[in-house]
Write a structure and sequence with these properties.
Elements lengths: L15 H18 L13 E6 L5 H12 L3 E6 L11 H10 L4 E6 L4 H6 L5 E7 L5 H15 L6 E5 L6 H12 L3 E5 L15 E3 L2 H4 L5 E4 L15 H8 L3 H5 L6 E3 L12 H4 L6 H19 L14
Parallel strand pairs: 1-2, 1-3, 3-4, 5-6, 5-8, 6-7, 8-9
């Protein structure tokens, strides 16, 4: 069975059954990554371009490794050293890249809708690796896979997304992905960092962390994105940590274990203490490794690959 989508732009475009099939394929590729030689020839002869207009370490590297693990050629496009600095438009850049016969383009941009813009104009498949504060679908799918592997269930699970919701593309994609699979989602943060009306997309809103933390199974901690913010959204870093920081002291008061995620990078001592990130309850490094397997699955499917007939079937 082939994937029904030409591109991956938003979680809203894919169904629950498609998400579950993607997670099954991710599990297969996760096994590949544990081999002594973690490579399959699935995309041999194809070229993937990473078109990143914003700084990125984890996502850009994850896509590059995923492509190479599939035996594809991967070209990393750095906007600051390209003709973009000379006035070349996004469409000009993409058209020139496509003329070089690439199979797919992975794009990150500070502009919401940039991936959709390319998808309407290019023959190559497009993967949205983050568009402004809009969506980050592969991160959400990786988060879902990580929790499904850790906790096994999704229906009835309670997820809390904590922190800078307003400027987070991960939050919006996570809300969509987890609710599609039957989880309940709550968000928490300062009122100035929670967009009005966000509950309409399927989440509950809380402003006091200690009131909700003991009620959830998983917490996704978000980075305070100081580079995207205007001044004055909260009084001070010290006050933010006191009210919303996931500290060791706060966790010791809980009566049940809590699974902790963070899409990275972390502002240590602000939204999370380092001791918390390395505790047995943290799955942050699992998120990173699973992100490679998930992106292998997405690139493979969008390049024309089929879902495996069973979890033991290896894509070829």
């Amino acid at each position: 069975m082939k994937f029904n989508q030409k591109n991956l732009l938003t979680i809203a475009d894919i169904s629950k059954s498609e998400i579950l099939a993607i997670l099954d394929l991710t599990a297969t590729f996760r096994q590949v990554l544990d081999r002594p030689i973690p490579v399959v020839p699935a995309l041999r002869g194809k070229t993937i371009v990473n078109l990143f207009f914003e700084p990125s370490t984890r996502t850009a590297t994850s896509f590059a490794i995923a492509a190479r693990r599939l035996s594809a050629d991967c070209v990393n496009f750095a906007a600051m050293t390209s003709a973009v600095t000379k006035g070349e438009t996004l469409l000009d850049t993409a058209k020139n890249i496509e003329a070089m016969k690439v199979a797919g383009v992975v794009i990150r941009s500070s502009h919401p809708g940039a991936a959709h813009f390319l998808a309407q104009r290019l023959m190559a498949f497009i993967v949205n690796a983050g568009d402004g504060a809009h969506e980050h679908p592969t991160q959400a799918l990786s988060d879902v896979f990580t929790i499904k592997e850790r906790i096994k269930k999704m229906d009835g699970l309670k997820l809390l997304i904590l922190g800078d919701i307003t400027h987070s593309r991960v939050a919006r994609s996570d809300i969509s992905a987890f609710t599609k699979l039957g989880a309940g989602v709550a968000i928490c943060g300062p009122p100035t960092l929670i967009p009005p009306g966000i509950e309409k997309i399927g989440c509950e809103v809380f402003y006091k962390l200690d009131h909700i933390l003991s009620e959830v199974d998983v917490v996704q901690v978000l980075r305070i994105q100081l580079e995207r913010q205007q001044k004055g959204l909260f009084p001070s870093i010290r006050e933010y940590r006191a009210l919303y920081g996931l500290t060791k002291e706060r966790l010791t008061k809980l009566k049940k274990p809590l699974t902790i995620m963070h899409p990275g990078p972390v502002n240590w001592g602000v939204e999370m203490d380092h001791e918390v990130s390395v505790s047995p309850h943290s799955v942050i490094l699992e998120q990173v490794k699973n992100g490679v397997a998930l992106r292998m699955a997405i690139l493979y499917l969008l390049a024309g690959g089929e879902y495996p007939k069973s979890s033991s079937t290896e894509p070829s």
